[in-house]
Amino acid sequence: MKYDVIVVGAGPAGSTSAKFLAEEGIKVLLIDKEKFPRDKPCGGGIPIRTLKKFKYIEEKELIESYTYGVYVNFPFKEEPIKVEIEKPMHGMVLRKKFDYGLVNHAIDCGTKFADKTKIVDMKIDKNKVKLITNNNQYLESKIVIGADGVWSIIAKKSNLSQNSKNFGVCLYQEVNLKEKTIKNYFPGKKLAHVHINYTGKNGYGWVFPKREHINIGVGELKKHRTQDVKGIGLKDAFKRYIKNLKENKIIPKEIKFEKVKGAALPSCHIEKTYSDRLLLCGEAAGFINIGGGGIDYAMISGELAAKVTVESLENNRATENYLSRYQRLWMDEFGKDIKIFSKMQKKFGEKTHKFITLACKDEKLSKLFLDVFIGNTKFYENKWKIGRRLVYLYLRDFLHKD
User: Fold this and answer.
1) CATH value of 2-44+94-163+270-344 in 3.30.930.10, 3.40.50.150, 3.40.1440.10, 3.50.50.60
2) pLDDT (tens digit, 9 = 90+) per residue, 39-52?
3) Is 154 strand, coil or helix?
4) Whole-angstrom Cα distance, residue 19 to residue 305?
5) Does domain 66-93+165-266 have CATH number 3.30.9?
6) What digits encode the pLDDT tens for the residues 63-73?
7) Three-state secondary structure call for residue 221
8) Distances from the Cα of 68 to the Cα of 28, 73, 276, 354, angstroms
9) What is the model's pTM?
């Protein structure tokens, strides 16, 4: 079974890449190990900048609702800091519906899709990529795009996997409620809740309201161990979080939590996202922002991977050197921000309360962060403005105390 391109992983990165490839007349196969539609551990928030860039998301009616702000809490005993804007900050999705919608859109554009297909081996030679599946299928292509998540088999088989043992881990549940109930608890602009350092660790809890669902979860940054990936250690924290949410009337008391799900997240991008006849995008490349979100970076990297792949096929050049252009493209698009976010993650929890309190209570600094958060500008382009403002606020606060 021969193709021009095989895309492994049918999340937002893979489906986006396949869609743009198919539109260019490329013979592309999109595969995933899971049976679709399937759910995915995720809060389900998409920045408005992503909706503007990929207009078909709203055209295909894949957005459940919009949120216009957030309550930042430190801990429950203190008054939360409210950040609210007039225009939507994020579009909220259900990953089961959203991912399947993107897959179907890619199929409509000409992509061939195969779910329940797991790659078990890969070999790259001078002229082609050979893939072997779990049901002993032999697949062949000129280029492979790895978009198969944090434990990417494509990254592993190409020796591009990250050696770092630092990962984020989370537990979450998406609860189905009546729309009327959600409107009662999250009236008006459906503001989300974020609880910083809810257990005194480097992490946070979240509550994201949607149209008929509430996404609730806890996560932390720590060194990866097998028991952490399974969720051991976070289970008690999740139970305490649910209890506190109910006591503070953020969620209904009658909500029952049974099927809690867990996941691991990358904490930084891998150093090299390309090789001979191979590109990595989305979480397979370690693309994620400081808040744990990755849909926007996944879709952008998927489009960029498709762009470079099309050029490679047109010029009949799929060498590592030629495909290296992909890394320059994503670095220009969001890579500098990711590097800053990675450094900030390492410091997460150190004076976090003070930092966010200053940011939320100062109008100029709040606007700078919100512009970055909703995609009006990039963090890297404003880092000196943010830094200078923080120094000023720290000094002003210090002198005021004296």
Assistant:
1) 3.50.50.60
2) 988 889 998 889 99
3) helix
4) 11
5) yes
6) 999 999 888 88
7) strand
8) 38, 17, 44, 24
9) 0.88
